[in-house]
Amino acid sequence: MPLNRTAARLILLSWMLGCPRAALADVTACVQAHTSGQREAKAGRLKAAAEQFASCVSQDCPATIRSECAEFHKSTERSMPTVIFAALDEQGGDLIQVRVSADDQLLTESLDGRPIAVDPGQHHFKFELPSGQVLESDVVVREAEKNRIVSMREKTTPTAPKEASPPSGNSRVLPASFWIASGVGAAALVSFGAFAALGHGKQSTLNECAPNCSASSRVDYDAMHRDYLIADLSLGVAVVSAGVATWLLLRNDGSSASEPHAAASPPLRFTLTPLVSTRGVGLELDARAF
Prior knowledge:
It is built from 6 helices and 9 strands; from the N terminus they run ααααβββββββααββ.
């Protein structure tokens, strides 16, 4: 049956009467450790209770106190839970140099796979990894729970997106007027081919009846003349557009090489106006900045 305070005091009094003063201080410490250990155990602070009971198991304590402290120490050790900490890297390998603390109290500075005693209850565990990452977790440890594994894994570091490489110094941007001129030239070539084919077809028909073509063939003659006229105009537009596009290309290439940092010149607007008269056909080119 555990000693109560009265019994402890009687033991202390008997030792005071029969022992010298040098031993009196040791007996007082034994009684205080015996009492404090029981108080800490009831409060759930088993680690502190075990330390108190271990101190009063000393040979300097009275036999009765020493015997009870030994029993209390064994009971406390059975009830005290233990945990085994583990930390893994991103690939699942073990990390060794990891600092682990519980409720802001350092438990270990490296992991060796051995169990560590903790008090029962809720704990806030913090893992400080070699990479600098700090992993935290709240865990409820139960009384008498032995060798519970508390494992944390290093979080994957997000890969930073690659920055777009700046354009090289040799790159150039063609002005919009170049593409306009090129488009007009391409359309004009298509128009030239179409109307030239139509005119050639009508000319073949007239050649078959020449020189005895009927008066109604005059309509085919006029249509042939119109188709060839449009074809000639289209060809002229294609040639002029090709020349303008070539000039713009060479001008842009030369300005990029000589003045890489100069301000871009304003784009040009080109207007091609066909001129048709009884004397012939022609083209008028108008280039204006806008």
